[in-house]
Amino acid sequence: KYNMKNAEKAGVPYGVYIYSPAINEDEAVEEAKFLLKHVKGYKVQLPLVIDFEYPTKDGKQVGRLADADLNKKERTAIINAFCRTVSDAGYTPALYASSYIYRGEISAKKLEKGTVIWVADYNKKVTYAGRYDIWQYSEKGKCNGVSSKYVDTNYWYTDKNTEDDNIS
Predict the structure, then answer these.
(1) What secondary structure does DSSP assign to 15-68, as a single string?
(2) Alpha carbons 64 and 2: distance in angstroms, whole number
(3) 124-141 pLDDT, tens per residue?
(4) Average pLDDT over residues 72-77
(5) CB 14 within 8 A of CB 35
(6) Residue 10 to residues 4, 7, 14, 30: CA-CA distances in angstroms?
(7) How would you class 127 by CB atoms within 10 Å of its CB: exposed for 0-12, middle for 13-18, buried for 19 or more?
(8) Could you tell me the sign of the dihedral formed by the alpha carbons of 117, 123, 126, 129, in that order?
(9) Is the separation of the CB atoms in 52 and 97 below 8 Å?
């Protein structure tokens, strides 16, 4: 709430995301409703995002999402349940995931219509061949006024080509 209030005060557009460990559609809907509850009364202008990724330890996927051993159809349904709930509430939904997730763990072409595709791929170009709207190209960016050593940096592709397309 602190960040939303201050972003509004400064005139900075913002969105909100949740790092999701959902292993079924009901949990995804619950997470979407959690976000919707917390943004109520604020002027969210950018998407409400489900961050869908596997935590790793020693190069292996770990955690309840990995332990659930879901198939592609189930993972896609979970994401769609979140996105549909967000969309039905009048917000723009988005999915943040790595190229790895988009390439083989979900059916990106079957995502809810209107879902913003945000792909993390720390390479010279995106290795995922499908459509995407935002590319997170680095986790080692710098941003004046941010106290952490590094920030994630992204390109958001829009219909028009402007300098405002690079957001962090």
Answers:
(1) -EEEE----SHHHHHHHHHHHHHHHTTS---S-EEEE----EETTEE-SHHHHH
(2) 30
(3) 999 999 999 999 999 999
(4) 98
(5) no
(6) 10, 5, 11, 31
(7) middle
(8) negative
(9) yes
